[in-house]
Amino acid sequence: MQLDQIRTEISDTDQQLLALLAKRRQLALAVANAKLAQNKPIRDQKREQELLISLIEHGKTLNIDAQYVTRLYHVIIEDSVLQQQAKIQGQLNNLDRDIVRVAFLGGQGSYSYWAAQKYFTRRAEQLIELGCDSFHDIVHSVETGHADYAVLPIENTSSGSINEVYDLLQHTRLSIVGELTHPIAHCLLGLEDTDLSKIRQVCAHPQVIAQCSQFLQGLANVKVEYCDSTSDAFSRVKQLQDPSVVAIGGEAGGDLYGLQVLTRELANQKDNVSRFIVVARKPVQVAKAIPAKTTFIMYTGQQPGALVDALLVLKQHGISMAKLESRPINGNPWEEMFYVDVFANLNDYAMTRALEELNKITRFIKVLGCYASEDIEPTQVIA
Ligand SMILES: O=C(O)C(=O)C[C@]1(C(=O)O)C=C[C@@H](O)C=C1
C-alpha cells in the first residue's frame, strides 16, 4: 500500500474510534439515569475492575499490552464518571443552561482559561469568557452578576496554597459549587528565532515563577518580569517581538500566540497539578450518588487545644479531612482562620451533627460550599 492509502485507512480507523467513544459516552449517561432510579452510586469499582481485567485479557489476544489497555481505560472511565456526575448535578440543581458566563484569570491561553474550558465543556453549550486581571476582579464580577461563575486556582502541588484566593473566600458570599484538577506543564516559550543562550528577560505570573524557582535560579543575568497572568506573559512576548524575551506557560496557550516551545518540564515537581474551585452566587446540592466535598471556615479562638477539639468532632463523626489550611484574620494579629475541606455531603446526617457541635465550640463558622468531588481515582486491578 502507498503511504497516502495507509494514512487514509488510519484516519478512517481514528474516526471509527471516536464514533465508538461517543457511543460509549451516551451509554454511560443512560447508566447514570438507571442508577439514579435505583439509588445506586455512580462509581462501581467492582464493575470497573471486571471490565478492565476482561479487556486486558482480550488485549493479549490482539497483541495489545496490558499497560496500554490500562492507560486508555483510565482516561475513558474518568470521562465516563465525570460526564455522569455533571449530568446528575445539572439535573438536581436545574443547571442545564445553554450559555454560561465564566470569569477567570487572564485571557485565552492562561491556565485558568483551560481549566474553565475543561469544567464547562461538560456543562454548557456555549461559554462567554470573561478574562480578568486579578482574583479580586474575578470574584467581584460574579458578585455583581456580570458573570455566572468564577474559576479560581486554589492550590498547586509545587507552590502550595494560593493565599490570595483563600483570603477572598473569607469575605465573599459566593459559594463553592465545583472543583477540578488540571495538570500544569510549564514550558519556556519564545519567538521562532529565539536563541536560548541570548535570553534577557522571562515573563511569567508570580505563581508560575514560584513553581519554576529552581529552573529560574539556574538562569544567570536574566530579568524576571512579573505578569498578571500567563496569557499576559504570552502577549507581552508577542507584542515586543524581541527574541531575547520569553514567557513561561503551557504549550497549548503559547500556541495561540504563535510562540514556540524552547524547553519543557520547568516546574520544581514533576507532577505539577493545580486544583481549581468553581464559585457561584447560589450554592448547589450534591446528589447522594456522587462523592461530595464540603469546605467550611472556622475561627476556634486561641484557648489551648481549641483546634484539636474541633478536629475531634470530625473524627467522632467519622468524617475524613481532605485539607486543612490557616490564614491570618485581617485586623486581629496572630489569630488564624482555619479552612477545612472534608469528604462529606453537607446533607449527610454525620456532617449536620458535626457542624452543630462545631457551632457550639467555635467562635465563628461558615460553610463555603458543598460540591461534587472530581478526584477520580484510577481503577485498581487486584493482581
Ligand atoms: O456500568 C456502570 O455502572 C457505569 O456507570 C459505567 C462505567 C463505565 O464507564 O464503564 C462508569 C462508572 C462505573 O464506575 C462503572 C462503569
TrEMBL record:
<dbReference type="GO" id="GO:0004106">
    <property type="term" value="F:chorismate mutase activity"/>
</dbReference>
<dbReference type="InterPro" id="IPR001086">
    <property type="entry name" value="Preph_deHydtase"/>
</dbReference>
<keyword id="KW-0963">Cytoplasm</keyword>
<protein>
    <recommendedName>
        <fullName>Bifunctional chorismate mutase/prephenate dehydratase</fullName>
        <ecNumber>4.2.1.51</ecNumber>
        <ecNumber>5.4.99.5</ecNumber>
    </recommendedName>
</protein>
<feature type="binding site">
    <location>
        <position position="35"/>
    </location>
    <ligand>
        <name>substrate</name>
    </ligand>
</feature>
<dbReference type="Pfam" id="PF00800">
    <property type="entry name" value="PDT"/>
</dbReference>
<keyword id="KW-0413">Isomerase</keyword>
<feature type="binding site">
    <location>
        <position position="24"/>
    </location>
    <ligand>
        <name>substrate</name>
    </ligand>
</feature>
<feature type="binding site">
    <location>
        <position position="84"/>
    </location>
    <ligand>
        <name>substrate</name>
    </ligand>
</feature>
<dbReference type="InterPro" id="IPR010952">
    <property type="entry name" value="CM_P_1"/>
</dbReference>
<feature type="domain" description="Chorismate mutase">
    <location>
        <begin position="1"/>
        <end position="88"/>
    </location>
</feature>
<dbReference type="InterPro" id="IPR008242">
    <property type="entry name" value="Chor_mutase/pphenate_deHydtase"/>
</dbReference>
<keyword id="KW-0511">Multifunctional enzyme</keyword>
<dbReference type="InterPro" id="IPR002912">
    <property type="entry name" value="ACT_dom"/>
</dbReference>
<keyword id="KW-0057">Aromatic amino acid biosynthesis</keyword>
<feature type="binding site">
    <location>
        <position position="80"/>
    </location>
    <ligand>
        <name>substrate</name>
    </ligand>
</feature>
<comment type="function">
    <text>Catalyzes the Claisen rearrangement of chorismate to prephenate and the decarboxylation/dehydration of prephenate to phenylpyruvate.</text>
</comment>
<keyword id="KW-0028">Amino-acid biosynthesis</keyword>
<feature type="binding site">
    <location>
        <position position="44"/>
    </location>
    <ligand>
        <name>substrate</name>
    </ligand>
</feature>
<feature type="binding site">
    <location>
        <position position="48"/>
    </location>
    <ligand>
        <name>substrate</name>
    </ligand>
</feature>
<dbReference type="GO" id="GO:0004664">
    <property type="term" value="F:prephenate dehydratase activity"/>
</dbReference>
<comment type="pathway">
    <text>Amino-acid biosynthesis; L-phenylalanine biosynthesis; phenylpyruvate from prephenate: step 1/1.</text>
</comment>
<dbReference type="GO" id="GO:0009094">
    <property type="term" value="P:L-phenylalanine biosynthetic process"/>
</dbReference>
<dbReference type="GO" id="GO:0046417">
    <property type="term" value="P:chorismate metabolic process"/>
</dbReference>
<keyword id="KW-0584">Phenylalanine biosynthesis</keyword>
<dbReference type="GO" id="GO:0005737">
    <property type="term" value="C:cytoplasm"/>
</dbReference>
<dbReference type="InterPro" id="IPR036263">
    <property type="entry name" value="Chorismate_II_sf"/>
</dbReference>
<comment type="pathway">
    <text>Metabolic intermediate biosynthesis; prephenate biosynthesis; prephenate from chorismate: step 1/1.</text>
</comment>
<dbReference type="InterPro" id="IPR002701">
    <property type="entry name" value="CM_II_prokaryot"/>
</dbReference>
<dbReference type="InterPro" id="IPR036979">
    <property type="entry name" value="CM_dom_sf"/>
</dbReference>
<feature type="domain" description="ACT">
    <location>
        <begin position="295"/>
        <end position="372"/>
    </location>
</feature>
<dbReference type="InterPro" id="IPR045865">
    <property type="entry name" value="ACT-like_dom_sf"/>
</dbReference>
<keyword id="KW-0456">Lyase</keyword>
<feature type="domain" description="Prephenate dehydratase">
    <location>
        <begin position="101"/>
        <end position="281"/>
    </location>
</feature>
<feature type="binding site">
    <location>
        <position position="7"/>
    </location>
    <ligand>
        <name>substrate</name>
    </ligand>
</feature>
<dbReference type="Pfam" id="PF01817">
    <property type="entry name" value="CM_2"/>
</dbReference>
